[in-house]
Design a protein that fits this description.
Largest sheet: 5 strands, parallel
Number of helices: 9
Number of strands: 11
Radius of gyration: 19 Å
Helix content: 40-55%
Distance between the termini: 17 Å
Structural class: alpha/beta
Strand order of the largest sheet: 2-1-3-4-5
Length: 227
């Protein structure tokens, strides 16, 4: 799937000029915002099939916060964080928030172009699987590529919430709220439900990954192939 637009959120004019020089020859429509606030005020800030290049250290909102805003509206477009600081904790935070990659300044142009091409391949795979993944409320079932699995009401609700969530990621508190689990054993009940659901959907090639301290993530077949 071809990416046709690049959105750069960066307050360093030299860095903006450099990224433009790399991306313009690829035929991308480039938009530049010098602050997170300017980006968020743009009425067309979430175009489909865009590449987002975000400076982490912006005045006002930081890169992690912008990632979260984008992912609430756009599940798949690639987001690259650009930073001059090699901070492992910050890298992990951005990736967990939904960024696809974390690039250090100065960015190697060949690396940026290679990652863009890989992102286009990932977009095509994600769209392909999403088009084939079906939930049937009447039958309370999920099907993928001709295979079908029956679900309980709670299992169906959980799968539906995963598919609606940015990056198919659910915090444990979100899961408990969705299931209306509020007693002292709610976390145990949620864990048991996820365990049973894992076994059911495994035959479809779907997997639920536990992210320590950060909930669960639904992995579709192409997620594994595009890591």
């Amino acid at each position: 799937m071809k990416i046709r637009r690049a959105i750069i959120v960066e307050d360093d004019e030299l860095m903006v000029s450099y990224m433009k020089s790399v991306l313009a020859p690829l035929g991308l429509d480039i938009q530049v915002f010098k602050s997170a606030e300017n980006f968020l005020l743009n009425p067309q800030r979430y175009p489909k099939r865009a590449l987002y290049l975000l400076d982490f250290n912006l005045p006002g909102l930081n890169g992690k916060q912008i990632i979260q805003f984008i992912r609430n509206h756009d599940r798949y477009s690639p987001i690259f964080i650009i930073s001059g600081e090699n901070n492992v904790q910050r890298v992990n935070e951005c990736l967990e928030a939904g960024a696809d990659d974390y690039l250090f300044k100065p960015v190697d142009p060949r690396l940026l172009v290679a990652k863009l091409k890989r992102s286009e391949e990932k977009l095509s795979l994600l769209q392909s699987v999403d088009d084939e993944l079906e939930l049937d409320l009447g039958k309370r079932s999920i099907s993928l590529r001709g295979k079908q699995v029956s679900l309980t009401i709670r299992e169906f609700n959980v799968v539906q919430r995963f598919l609606e969530a940015p990056e198919k990621h659910l915090m444990q508190d979100e899961l408990m709220t969705k299931l209306e689990l509020r007693n002292t054993n709610s976390r145990v009940s949620a864990s048991i439900l996820i365990s049973l659901l894992r076994k059911k959907i495994y035959g479809l090639g779907l997997e639920i990954k536990t992210i320590r301290g950060n909930g669960y993530k639904l992995l579709v077949p192409c997620d594994e192939r595009t890591k």
